[in-house]
Amino acid sequence: MLPTPPEGYISVIGTSYLHPITTLLDALDSHNPKGPNDVQSSTFENGYSASIIVLTVLLIESAISRTQYIMGNKTPKKPIDFVRETYPTSGFPDKLEELFVTRDAIVHNHLWEAQIYWDETLGMKLVDAELKDGYGDKKFTKVLNSTTRTTRILNINLFPTRICQADCITVLKNAIEFLLYLEQIDRNYIYLSPQYVKYKGVPVSFVDIVKGL
User: Fold this and answer.
1) Residue 83 to residue 77: CA distance in whole angstroms
2) What's CA 102's distance to the chain center, in Å?
3) 116 assigned to some structural domain
4) pLDDT, tens only, 26-80
5) Whole-model pTM above 0.90?
């Protein structure tokens, strides 16, 4: 019996992230998230939301990596540089930059030194906060609204302990919009539409889950 002829294969994680993201979404919802006060959201809401954001941005980066490979880019560019140069009028580069900055703020746990007090009605109240030296980069400075400590366009929290369900929904919706944009150009880049996951015990389209959030 002749051996099977070899086939090409690329080690792209891509849509494998959809299943853990969905599991985390389900778990987040089960903890009845209420959003943050001035200083923090609950440990459950903060932890699940931050985890979802990180995995979602990894999904975007994986799709961009595959896209560059399919396009024949021998030396891949940084994800945001690639999107900005390849799809400059798409409306995505600046929004994706905010998603990547948020991912960095979580992964590197940007440290803000804050002064707070306790309000019996409202909980923790923030007096002032300053980002410690050594955290953030040019992208961070570019997207940061220093008054609100959120991103300028999408209003995502960059004060790590305030990251909440609303932030992860914003990240997911913008990520899916971009990935469907790539899919429309060429399904070889990513084919997200037919991807089903189990959410609340029921098989459902991942795209439909995010659109319904």
Assistant:
1) 9
2) 7
3) yes
4) 999 999 999 999 999 999 999 999 999 999 999 999 999 999 999 999 899 999 9
5) yes
pLDDT tens digits, 115-163: 999 888 778 899 999 999 999 999 999 999 999 999 999 999 999 999 9
Residue 180: domain span: 14-211
- Which residue type occupies 5? P
First CA to last CA distance, the chain: 53
**Of all helices (H) and strands (E), which one includes residue 88?**
none
Cβ burial 54-69 (10 Å sphere, 16+ → b, else e)? bbbbbbbbbbbbbbbe
> CA 84, 88, 92, 93 torsion: positive or negative?
positive
Give a yes or no: residue 7 inside a domain.
Answer: no
49: exposed, middle or buried (Cβ count in 10 Å: 0-12, 13-18, 19+): buried
Number of domains comprising the chain: 1
Is 63 inside a domain boundary?
Answer: yes
Type of residue found at 77: K
